[in-house]
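Lab notebook, design round three. We kept the backbone fixed and only want residue identities now. Task for the bench partner: fill in a sequence for the structure below.
Input structure tokens:
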């Protein structure tokens, strides 16, 4: 079904106009909702409990509709997303109530203008659980589960949510082309290049026309296909695509938005804050520049400290603060110094909760139980994994340009500042 047709039942249900019941046992009229998978397919679902329908009920129906084994239930979660905000819903929440509160959530957690909030239209989506550990995902061999994970990874790469190098994008596009086309030719790839590569690389050379740029990229993709081993099994190709994506330390992240201050020098006056998005997954945190999509800093959760300070007051230009602190070498010397970064954001509380759960391994038991059931169901699951090497967990990466581009305070082991601390133009909230 088309996207427009799929969205109509969700709007027609009048979810945003329905008054939430005070008790869950109040009878309500059945309603229809639409849940999207990451390949943009909409699934119309009739909910007999109406607005009292819980996320757990919708999740169970989706597992049945997609014919996924119940054992893989923890792999996926129900999300409510829009261009302004993305939220993974809890099993006991009601989608209708979250939809009704959406504008209030936008006002609380985003800096969107009133017109943007008024026209924002969230949708329900069935996506990867952000708390799914990488080592657990690697053990999944079910075809339909792997396909859903693959489709989500493709969207994150092609939509350029992941800051991926051009050579890596070409390699991933070659795998995707093999999955989508039996015979990969230059003409076929040219017609589908917009579905294979991020638009960022298609317009990288402003002096070259889009047609010529697409031809050049298509030739590189075809060349990559010819230089790799021929694999006819789609599942094997999907696993290979996922294995390469898992090498990214930011794979499977949820994204938050905020801003940081530029480093202030005596030659350049104070500039506007740098807009960033913060990617957090089960093992790492990355701060990424929104404009250039480059990684400013990335650090393992095991090697960082963090703190959350709520804003003292409410206003358009008042933000909460999320602090991160980590150790690394200073100016390529062997001297270990402590870097501190302050991120101004209205999503600081959400970031704090996310890091706390991931860093402390909360919810890990659920996935360990799933792995145990998988191993009991079949002893051949481990043989279905790709033979590609896995990314070594726990390693941290840091941008070499960090100290020149953003405001950080550098502290010696004895606690003294290496660089003088500049005064923030925002009022610092009191320590909680």
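Proposed sequence:
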């Amino acid at each position: 079904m088309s996207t427009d047709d799929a969205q109509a039942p969700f709007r027609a249900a009048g979810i945003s106009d329905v008054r939430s019941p005070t008790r869950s046992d109040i009878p309500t009229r059945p309603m229809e909702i639409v849940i999207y998978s990451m390949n943009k397919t909409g699934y119309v679902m009739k909910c007999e409990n109406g607005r009292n329908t819980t996320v757990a009920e919708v999740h169970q129906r989706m597992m049945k509709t997609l014919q996924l084994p119940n054992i893989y239930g923890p792999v996926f979660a129900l999300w409510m997303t829009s261009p302004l905000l993305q939220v993974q819903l809890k099993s006991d929440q009601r989608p209708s109530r979250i939809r009704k509160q959406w504008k209030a959530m936008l006002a609380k957690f985003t800096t969107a203008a009133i017109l943007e909030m008024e026209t924002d239209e969230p949708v329900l989506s069935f996506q990867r659980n952000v708390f799914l550990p990488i080592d657990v995902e690697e053990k999944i061999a079910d075809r339909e589960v792997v396909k859903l994970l693959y489709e989500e990874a493709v969207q994150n790469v092609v939509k350029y949510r992941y800051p991926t190098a051009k050579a890596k994008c070409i390699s991933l596009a070659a795998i995707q082309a093999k999955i989508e086309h039996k015979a990969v030719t230059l003409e076929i790839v040219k017609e589908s290049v917009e579905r294979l590569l991020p638009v960022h690389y298609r317009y990288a050379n402003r002096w070259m026309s889009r047609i010529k740029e697409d031809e050049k990229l298509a030739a590189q993709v075809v060349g990559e296909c010819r230089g790799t081993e021929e694999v006819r099994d789609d599942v094997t190709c999907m696993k290979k695509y996922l294995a390469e994506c898992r090498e990214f330390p930011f794979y499977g992240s949820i994204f938050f938005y905020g801003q940081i201050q530029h480093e202030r020098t005596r030659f350049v006056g104070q500039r506007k804050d740098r807009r960033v998005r913060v990617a957090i997954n089960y093992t790492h945190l990355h701060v990424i520049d929104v404009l250039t999509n480059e990684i400013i800093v990335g650090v393992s959760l095991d090697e960082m400290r963090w703190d959350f300070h709520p804003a003292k007051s409410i206003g358009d230009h008042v933000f909460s603060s999320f602090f991160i602190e980590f150790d690394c070498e200073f100016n390529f010397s062997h001297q270990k110094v402590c870097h501190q970064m302050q991120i101004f954001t209205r999503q600081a509380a959400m970031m704090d909760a996310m890091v706390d759960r991931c860093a402390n391994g909360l919810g890990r038991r659920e996935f360990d139980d799933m792995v145990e059931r998988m191993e009991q169901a079949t002893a051949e699951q481990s043989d279905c994994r790709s033979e590609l090497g896995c990314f070594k967990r726990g390693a941290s990466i840091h941008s070499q340009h960090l100290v020149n581009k953003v405001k950080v305070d550098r502290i010696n082991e004895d606690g003294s500042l290496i660089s003088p601390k500049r005064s923030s133009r925002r009022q610092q909230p009191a320590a909680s």
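Keep this in mind before ordering anything: The first strand starts at residue 31 and ends at 36.
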